Amino acid sequence: MKDVVIGFLGCGNVGGGVWKLLEDFQKELAHRDNLRIRVKKVLVRDVNKSRTCAVPRELLTTDVSEIINDPEISIVVEFMGGEQPATEYMIRALRAGKTVVTANKVAVALNWHRLQAAAQETNVGLYYEASVCGAIPIIDTLNHSLQANRIHYLMGIINGTTNYILSRMYDKGEDYNAVLEDAKRLGLAEPNPASDVEGFDAAYKLSIMSSLAFHARIPFSKVYVEGITHVTAMDIACGKEMGYVLKLLAIAKRDGDSIEVRVHPTFIPTEHPLAQVNGSFNAVYLHGHACQEMMLQGRGAGDMPTASAVVGDIIHASIADVHVHPTFANKADADATLAFEDNWRSRYFVRISAVDKPGVLAKVAGWFAQENVSIATMMQKGSVEDGRVPLIFITHEAPEKAMQAALAAFDPAICTVDSMIRVEK
Ligand SMILES: NC(=O)c1ccc[n+]([C@@H]2O[C@H](COP(=O)([O-])OP(=O)(O)OC[C@H]3O[C@@H](n4cnc5c(N)ncnc54)[C@H](OP(=O)(O)O)[C@@H]3O)[C@@H](O)[C@H]2O)c1
Questions:
Q1: Helix, strand, or coil here: 119?
Q2: Which band of pLDDT confidence, cut at 50, 70 and 90, is reported for residue 385?
Q3: How far does Cα 66 stand from its chain's mean position?
Q4: Domains parsed from the chain with CATH numbers
Q5: Could you tell me whether strands 345-355 and 258-269 are parallel, antiparallel, or unpaired per DSSP bridges?
Q6: Quick check: 33 pLDDT over 90?
Q7: What is the pTM of this model?
Q8: 40 contacts: CB under 8 Å, gap ≥ 6
Q9: Over the stretch 155-174, which tens digit does the pLDDT of each residue have?
C-alpha cells in the first residue's frame, strides 16, 4: 500500500467537496490503486468558521509554512482562489519539492509560466484539470488524447452562471437583471458576479485551453472579452424567431500563425450541438484535423463535479512515474511568430430603431454597402413607437472592423443601433 500525505490550501466549496470525495473513495483507492491518501493539514483564513465537511478542527491552520515545510506532505492541493497569495504559495510548495494540484484558473492563466518553471526545477507535477470546466476532462483530453491533432478551432460554453442566465432568458423571455437576482438567490451566481457576467472567468479558462490546443502560450491579455450585461430579452426573442440561440461563447481559432481568441455573446443556430447545452452545464466543441468534430459536455462547477477533477488529479499525481508538462515554451508573453487577429470574420445580428419613413431602408443598406457588408436577412419586430420601428438584420460574413465602421456611419437622426451581436455557424 502506498501512503500519500497531502495538504489543502483552502477548504470552502471545492475543498469541502474534495474532503468528502476522498473520504467516500478510500475503499476504492485502497483496493483499486493500492493507495491510502491522508490529509494532514488544511490552510484556511478562519479556523473557527463552520464547514460543510467533517474536517477535524486540529487539522486547520492559518500558517501556510506548516504545510510547505512539512517533509511528510508530498502533494499540495490548492482551492483558495484568486491570483495571490495562491500563486506564491504554490510556487513555494513546488520549490519545496511538492507536487501541486490546483482548481485555480486565475492563478494558472496569469502565472502558468512561473508555476511550470518551479515544477520543472524540482521535477514535480503541476495538475490543473479542475481549473477549466469542472468535471469535464478537457485538460487531459487536450494534453494527451488529442496530441496527434492540429486543432483548428474550439468553441465553448465554459461559464455555468452566464449559461443559466441566458438559458432562462431564452426559455421564459425574462429580463437579464431579474434572472441574475434569482440566480444569486439560488446560489448559481456569486454575490458579486462581475467576473462571470463580464466574461473574465471564461477568458481565463480560454487562455488555458487554447494554449494547450495550439501548443503555444496564449496569454489572458490577448483574449478579447465582452460579457452579457448588455444583452436584452428583446435581442434573445428576435434571435429565437430567426432560429438562433444566444450563448456566451469562448472561441479560439488558429489558421497557420494567425490566432483569434475571444469571449462574447454569440448567436448560434438552434441545430448547433452547443445550442442544446443549457442551464449550468458546460461544453467544449472542437475540430482537429484527425479527430474531426467532437464535443465534451458536463457539469462545469459545483463542489462534487469539481472534486471529481481534483481527486482525479490527486490520484494521477500519486501514481505517476513521470509528471508531464506542456511542451510549448511557457512564457509570460506570446511567441513573436504568432499574430493575434482582432479583425476576425463573423456574421452579425444588428438591431436598430429606425424612423418610420420611406427611403430609410435604402440608407441603412447603403451604410452597410459602403463597408462591403451584405445583408442576409431582415426582419421588422413590433410596431412603431415614438415614430421609430425596430428592425433586425443578419449579415453575411464580414470583417469585424468593416462592421464597426459601417455601424459608426449610421446617422442617429435616422436610426440608432440598439445592439450588435456576433453570429457563428
Ligand atoms: N466553486 C466551484 O464550483 C468551482 C469550480 C471550479 C473551480 N473553482 C475554483 O476553486 C477555487 C476555490 O473555489 P471555492 O468556491 O471553493 O472558494 P471558497 O468557497 O471561497 O473557498 C476558499 C477557501 O480558501 C480559504 N482561503 C481563501 N483565501 C485565503 C487566504 N489568504 N489564506 C488562507 N485561506 C484562504 C478560505 O478560508 P475560510 O474558509 O476560512 O474563509 C476557504 O476555505 C477557486 O480558484 C475557484 O475558481 C471553483
A1: helix
A2: confident
A3: 33
A4: 2-134 (3.40.50.720), 138-299 (3.30.360.10), 345-423 (3.30.70.260)
A5: unpaired
A6: no
A7: 0.97
A8: 5, 6, 7, 59, 67, 70, 72, 73
A9: 999 999 999 999 999 999 99
Which atom, in ligand 1's list, is nearest to the CA of 11?
43
List alpha helices for 250-394, DSSP H: 303-319, 360-370
Binding pocket residue ranges, ligand 1, CB within 6 Å: 10-15, 43-46, 49, 79-81, 85, 103-105, 130, 134, 301-302, 306
Number of H helices, E strands in the chain: 14, 18
Amino acid present at 257: D
Spatial separation of the C-alpha atoms in residues 125 and 127, rounded to whole Å: 6
Amino acid at 312: G
Q: Cell numbers 485555480 correspond to what residue?
A: 104
Q: What is the mean pLDDT of residues 52-80?
A: 98
Hey, what long-range contacts does 41-44 have (CB within 8 A, 24 or more apart)? 41/7, 41/8, 41/66, 41/67, 41/70, 41/73, 42/7, 42/8, 42/11, 42/15, 43/7, 43/8, 43/9, 43/10, 43/11, 43/67, 43/80, 43/89, 44/10, 44/11
What is residue 208's predicted lDDT score, i.e. its pLDDT? Answer: 98
Contact 154, 286 (CB under 8 A): yes
Q: How far is CA 315 from CA 42, 138, 303, 311, in A?
A: 19, 17, 18, 6
Mean pLDDT score, 212-219:
97
Residues 64-75 have a mean pLDDT of: 98
pLDDT digits (tens, 9 = 90+) for 261-302: 999 999 999 999 999 999 989 999 999 999 999 999 999 999
Residue 423 pLDDT exceeds 90: yes
Whole-number pLDDT of residue 72? 98
What is residue 94's three-state secondary structure? helix
Q: Among all residues, which ones are annotated catalytic?
A: 205
Give the closest residue to 344 by CA, choosing from 406, 397, 408: 397
Q: How many residues does the chain have?
A: 425
How many angstroms separate the alpha carbon of residue 244 from the centre of ligand 1?
Answer: 36
DSSP per-residue string spanning 218-256? --GGGSEE--STT--HHHHHHHHHTTEEEEEEEEEEEET
In the chain, what percentage of residues exceed pLDDT 90?
96
Ligand 1 atom closest to 80 (CA)? 24
- What is each CA distance from 414 to 197, 313, 363, 380, 402, in whole angstroms? 32, 59, 9, 16, 20
